[in-house]
Amino acid sequence: MIASIFSTASGIFTTYQTQKLAADASGNTSAARTITNYNENSRNNVEKEEEFTTSDGYLSHYTSVRYPGAGMIRDVKIRLPHYLSDWTQAVSYRILAATIRIYFLNAIPALAYTMDMYTRTHQNYGVNEALLSSALGGIVFGLFAVQPISIVGFTGLINLFNYTTYDIMIERHVNYLPFMCWIAIWSAIFHWLIAIFNIVSYVRYVTNFTAEIFGFYVGIVYIQKGIEFIINEFNETPRDGFMSTVIACGFFFTYWTLTHVGQSSYFTRPVRDFLADYAMIICVLFWSGFAYIPGNLRSTNIQKLPVTRAFFPTQQQRSWFVNPSDLDISNVFIALPFGLLVTALFYFDHNISSLTAQAKHYPLKKPAGFHWDFFVLGWTTLIARFLGLPYPNALVPQCAMHTDALGKWKKMTVDDEQHIPTAAPSIHSSRRSAETLILVEIKEQRLTNTLQGLLCIVTMAGPFLICFAHISRAVLAGVFIGIGWGSVEGNSITTLVRHLVRDPNHMVPSDPLLQLSRLKIFHYVCWMLAGFAVIFGISQTTTAVGFP
């Protein structure tokens, strides 16, 4: 039976993608991101690979451990000719809008997780550490990565790892920051060995089955963290808890509405683009100010984001440099398995996130590479820990959101239909004839990632920290729930569950999922939910340190 279930996996995901294309053709603009030059893009990628012959040592050798460094050399060789165009093609309004949008989508969740770590690690991490970690990832990957559109920052899984490690080691009276520094040293070494010996290439064996479970898990953890923030306010007073619930739910519904209007046929395209680009900042500003409305609202005492001195660590008694020698030699080697766990987490999390930014349904033209980027990630991990920062790595929701933000649309013509047979049209009806839009280009450049990293450093200044201090924990709860639901809503698990609970008599006959047995789909979803339940259960206990 198990073999039968897994044999349907390929068919389910193929029909799931076909269903999304069909949904676009019927006017579902929220799925319009699937509009692509898929066949043409695939042919281009094959042609680029064929440029490297066996005699060059790349086509046959960059996936083999017997040829150290071949993968990294190949990554740099195919991307270096595009380095200048990565900057010259980055001049447009779309770049500015994408920079602002991705800064808030990166920084605000990082600040939310910082509030969690601030209390759970005895103030070892704060706003400045979160911002500097996001800045480090953005600037380094913007300047030196083969895949500069992958957004690298501070993630919830590292938040989980950091405070779980703190709980374990504080009982042993171990100096926490030097211990975390040694974890980074070991992890960096493992990163470099994996990149040098081309082991990153084994990511190709990660299937949609695993990737979708992981994406679903990340979304649920975001929502869970938002609910925890609200419950903590009830622990203060019921009045504060009710106020936090109103703000968090109001934030979520406002954010959800603005983003969906931005993907709909309502209003004109410039208005829709504005709402989609600035939904996060609009919601943060409005609902942060909501708590300051004079009267009963302002009299509540909901918690705000704790901030410290500009450009200084949260713990005033320490400097930005963590001395790794402040640790016993025995604990140096105890840090080794922890470093291996971080490496395993990043091997999956970072590479899967990068794959979402480079997914085949985007009309990308420039080549991607993973070996070199994983090598660079080892350096950012090492540098972050010598500065006492959370380790940065690629962000699952934000990577795809960044690529979406860089998209360029145009009206479909007859010529487009002939040359882009797999393009799924997004039809917007009005009093005029129907307008069909297709995604024709992604602005593949380095400026947005670099600029959003620089913005993280700028916002470590005093005036911006004062503004951050007015963001309530309830707003951060809404941020978690909003981003988490965005990940869950678009996940294939959710799509398949919705299919199973719908009345077959009211389904469109052309629905591709109708070609599959409902029982097989049910079994397949059960296995996916079982996998999710296992990793979610692990993350709720002290064994969360072994999450990878």
TrEMBL record:
Iron-sulfur found in the keyword field: no
Keyword Transport: no
Bilayer disposition of the protein: Multi-pass membrane protein
InterPro entries noted in UniProt: HCO3_transpt-like_TM_dom, HCO3_transpt_euk
Compartments reported by the entry: Membrane
A GO term from the CC aspect: plasma membrane
Record GO biological process: borate transport; monoatomic anion transport; monoatomic ion homeostasis
Molecular function in Gene Ontology: solute:inorganic anion antiporter activity
Residue spans crossing the bilayer: 95-115, 135-158, 179-200, 242-262, 274-293, 329-348, 369-387, 450-468, 475-501, 521-539
Alphabetical keyword list: Membrane, Transmembrane, Transmembrane helix
Pfam families reported for this sequence: HCO3_cotransp
Bicarbonate transporter-like transmembrane domain sequence ranges: 70-238, 240-548
PANTHER family assigned: ANION EXCHANGE PROTEIN, ANION TRANSPORTER (EUROFUNG)
Name of the molecule in the record: Bicarbonate transporter-like transmembrane domain-containing protein
Biological source species: Didymodactylos carnosus
